[in-house]
Specification:
Number of helices: 17
CATH topology: Cytochrome p450
Helix content: 40-55%
Distance between the termini: 34 Å
CATH superfamily: Cytochrome P450
Radius of gyration: 21 Å
Largest sheet: 5 strands, mixed
Number of domains: 1
Structural class: alpha+beta
Length: 416
């Protein structure tokens, strides 16, 4: 289980009533580690809609669908910037001249600055551009599946779930595939840290930036058709991009591209392996796979959105003070019983599959089109190329806690 190196238990603030205190450590919750899907339903059903926990320095959690959606859209109150402009300026002033603070952009910016930085990414991640990648994604999925087919078993995350999105990402960026293990390890290390520990977070972000620096400089001088080259040819509000801009862009895409999709795949394949009747239904009618993929994204979401309260406010029955951390707990919001009848049940024919897996508001995930293509293509190829597969009864699935929730390993078997 991911652990925080120095757990910080905060005293209960005077403005937090006892009834809104809920004992939950997002990095070290035994029930979440053992069975994340069930634990998230438990939180959505039994925890207060907005609660405060003393763990990891003290923070608020928003767990209900409508409140998470509202907060995601309300960037004026729920800021994505981890520090106030004054605090950021003070930190920058203390840095040596040759150092910088790395900030994944535009995810850690608020409008209107966020809007300018997001525009170039909207262009390169447009649905049409992502659809043009589908044939290559399908070929990669087929190659990985065929590589394990004759064995009759595999650990899905290691064999397919991790290398597939990593190779898609590296191919988009024109980065060397032979370094995929190195790239994946840095992301894993970063996501095991408490994001409240700024020094540790910066250490990981710096490592990511250094990995890509030589490629960034090379593409600036000798552009090709990859994403990095296309980004160099864009601007932010009429200003040419700098190396620092590109590093911050690529850090965001690095984290998002190498981790979130693999967790979606891991959850989805775990569910399919546990439900042979669903496999049979989808094999009989592959046209249902997009609907199945969407319900899987609702039932098993994985990313937590971190916010800073920009001002004192009353929200969801809680009094939240300026500067406090607020977690928009999308994985629980997607199983909110007030929004979804029988929320813990996967229902292929559910009418309302609207979800916040890709967040809401100005920070809605710009890679959602690519993610959907990857997961749908994976399910299509697995169901077409493998016989009925099942979970390995001797190796139960366990889950990673933290800001991204996902299966650590998904051992599956099939008859050859």
């Amino acid at each position: 289980m991911a652990t925080v190196t120095a757990p910080r238990i905060a005293p209960q603030p005077d403005h937090v009533p006892d009834e809104l205190v809920y004992d939950y450590d997002m990095y070290n919750d035994a029930a979440l580690n053992e069975n994340a899907p069930d634990r998230l339903v438990d939180i959505a059903t039994n925890a207060p809609p907005v609660f405060w926990t003393p763990h990891n320095g003290g923070m608020w959690f928003v767990t209900r669908f409508r409140l998470v959606t509202e907060a995601g859209r309300n960037w004026e109150n729920f800021s994505s910037e981890p520090f106030t402009p004054e605090d950021m300026a003070a930190m920058m002033a203390q840095l040596p001249p040759d150092e910088q603070i790395y900030l994944p952009v535009p995810i850690l910016l608020d409008p209107p600055v966020h809007t300018g930085f997001r525009k170039p990414l909207n262009l390169v991640f447009a649905p049409k551009a992502m659809m043009a990648m589908q044939d290559d994604i399908r070929s990669l999925a087929a190659e990985l599946i065929e590589g394990v087919k004759d064995a009759g078993h595999c650990e899905f995350m290691e064999a397919i779930g991790e290398p597939m999105p990593v190779q898609v990402f590296l191919g988009m960026f024109g980065l060397p595939l032979e370094r995929q293990d190195e790239f994946r390890q840095i992301v894993s290390d970063h996501l095991s840290e408490d994001f409240g520990e700024h020094a540790d977070s910066q250490r990981q972000l710096r490592a990511m930036a250094k990995l890509m620096e030589s490629t960034l400089l090379e593409r600036r001088e000798n552009p090709t058709g990859d994403l990095i080259s296309r980004l160099w040819q864009t601007d932010v509000d009429g200003r040419a991009l700098t190396l620092e801009d590109m590093q911050n862009y690529c850090i965001l895409l690095f984290i998002a591209g190498l981790d979130t999709v693999m967790n979606a795949m891991g959850f989805g394949v775990r569910h399919l392996a546990a439900n042979p009747a669903l496999q049979a239904e989808l094999r009989a009618d592959p046209a249902l796979i997009p609907e199945a993929a969407e319900e899987l994204l609702r039932r098993y979401s994985f990313v937590v959105s971190t916010r800073r309260a920009a001002r004192d406010m009353s929200f969801g029955g809680a009094q939240i003070k300026a500067g406090e951390r607020v977690m928009l707990y999308n994985p629980a919001a997607n199983v909110d019983p007030d929004e979804f009848p029988d929320p813990g049940t996967f229902d292929l024919h559910r009418e309302n599959k609207a979800h916040v897996t890709f967040a809401s508001g100005p920070h809605r995930c710009l890679g959602s089109h690519l993610a959907r293509i990857e997961v749908q293509t994976l399910y299509e190829e697995m169901l077409a190329r493998l016989p009925e597969f099942r979970l390995d009864p001797d190796n139960p699935v366990s889950y990673r806690c933290g800001p991204v929730i996902g299966p650590r390993a998904v051992p599956i078997r099939w008859d050859t």
